[in-house]
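Records of this kind hold a single protein each, on a pair of labelled lines. With that in mind, the following record should read easily:
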Amino acid sequence: MTDRTEDKKSVVEAVRHQIKILNGIVLLVVYALLFLIVRFMYLFLDYISTPSLVTILSIVAGLVVMGMYVANSAAKKAIRTIGEYTDKLNTLLTTTKDIREIEYGDILLENIMQSALKITGADAGSIMLIEKDRLVFKIAKGSRNANLTGLSIPKSAGIAGWAAENGSNVRIEDAKNDSRFDPEVDAMTGHEIKSLLCVPLKVKAGTIGILELINKQNGVFTQEDEELLSYFADQAAISIARTQFIEDQRNYEIHLTDILVDTMDTHIHEKAGHSKRVAKYSLMIADELNMPEDKKRTLYRACLLHDIGFLKIKLKDVTSKEQYKAHSQLGYNMLKLINFYADIAPIVLHHHERYEGNGYPNELIGDAIPVESRIIAIAEAFDAMTSRDSYKYVGKMLDKAEHSPTAGFHYAIEELKKNADTQFDPKLVDIFVNNIDESLLEEA
């Protein structure tokens, strides 16, 4: 991006340099002609009357000044036009790069809309995406456009519908006199539409929506505006389609994760709800660490699936600790093969490592263990010691029928402190014990 911007700047500077050279040549020619005229007049000075001489000299001087003024004005106008166009191109290039990196649809559409308004100088605009046989307003900008978001029109309605149906640009100076104009659509916007620029958002599969701008602030939309917006719309459409794919994948992941968590709860009744409680305790630590939001999301996903390896183990058939310990490796092997789980696979693999290096499966030491794994180790141990349903429950019996989830709370805290710097990361233990509260057990 920097290289492209520098290239644009170098082109503009080169053009400016050429214009300056041209101005210099023009001036040289003018001065040469002036010299020749004066020289010619000097030869015939005896034959020219004084009034005629004054008149000739005045005309020559006027022509010279006028020529210099016109040349200088044209040069300044050319430089200004080139500069403005360069600014638009730089905005276009920068924005195109930025929108490619956005993964969330609402943020992406906001950026596309703001950039389109800036590039063209439009007063208002909207982005409509095709959903079945409707054009749905996904975002609208302008003093009276805010209420459009979420509304829809028939796919073929109005000028926008025509652009969507035909996959072609529309640029109109007076929209109301166009045969495709639909007063009902106009009434929805709340604007008196005058000039209009509408370009389709197209990918290989076809048109996915429309980018519509109305009422340019200074004059009407130009061919230049249409060309710039058409290029921008092509890049925006690719980003929108990519974001939609990412969000579909994210939704698929959420549903699949829910299914897997429910399956684990059913498969191991004693651990029902365990994963969600571990996630809650782990995020408490993450908040105190000021962990970035993307890291928190990764941690949360890892918490939910940290025991997924048990789906490949029948606990009733387990006869040794080695068989039981295999669940972290099995979970890693399952998750690493799935693209949207690959990033949490190492966290799952190492959540039973010990801080002093005697854990499994790789006997990692200290900071060599992923911080997310170290967090989960604390949260899981705490839940195992305090949950009424856990097969590792260590609380005291209140009566023959019921365990208290808080009976082991203080015991669990002391155990975590006791094993800090051996089994657990001592800094993370301090954070946990200083922020955990018995009321959280009641909410679990």
In short: The chain is about 60% helix and 10% strand.
